[in-house]
Design brief:
single chain; 180 residues; mainly beta; 5-stranded antiparallel sheet; two-stranded antiparallel ribbon; 0% helix
């Protein structure tokens, strides 16, 4: 008897039993797959560098993807428009994008997705929205995202851009788990 766990997003699972621990014919009595968290996704932009139209010292676009709500991107001056964009490691299925701002107020912005063929698709057209956080439903494959802000309270800023989804589902990489 043995048990092990693996944490991965998989399209299918194949269990191959090559030998029995006691020399009997190999068999499997039970394989349990917990899929309860699969619909949540993860922040696939976490740790990415991103780029921006400008930034103040110590407030680069990297701060918008570091997972720390105590840091933030800030433009180098109060001029508009400004932008922050990010390219993912690979084309990925994106469920939603969460935008978190440093200052409460009304932001006029748009959010654009970048498709695998480099075409742009509007995720939210130029709109004025009030608040400190906004979630944009995406539900499609993208290879990047582009946030452009036209006005807001103070200088352009972005505390975090969380891109929630599943990275590189079409990968041919296969992980082999050796239980032996």
């Amino acid at each position: 008897t043995f048990s092990t766990s693996s944490n991965a997003v998989c399209r299918y699972i194949r269990l191959v039993v090559n030998k029995s621990m006691k020399g009997y014919n190999p068999s499997s009595k039970e394989l349990v797959v917990d899929y309860s968290d699969l619909n949540k996704g993860q922040n696939i932009a976490l740790g990415l560098k991103g780029t921006s139209s400008s930034y103040s010292n110590s407030y680069s676009s990297l701060k918008a993807f570091d997972g720390d709500h105590g840091t933030f991107f800030c433009a180098s001056d109060g001029s508009y428009p400004q932008h922050v964009d990010v390219q993912f490691r690979s084309t990925s299925y994106v469920k939603n994008i969460n935008l978190h701002f440093q200052d409460y107020g009304t932001y006029e912005f748009e959010l654009v997705g970048i498709l695998e063929n480099n075409e742009e698709v509007s995720l939210i057209s130029r709109s004025k929205l009030q608040g400190i956080s906004h979630t944009v439903e995406v539900e499609r494959e993208l290879k990047g995202a582009f946030y452009k802000v036209y006005s807001g309270p103070g200088w352009a800023n972005l505390k975090e851009m969380e891109v929630i989804g599943f990275e590189n589902l079409n990968s041919q990489n296969k992980e082999i788990l050796d239980l032996g």
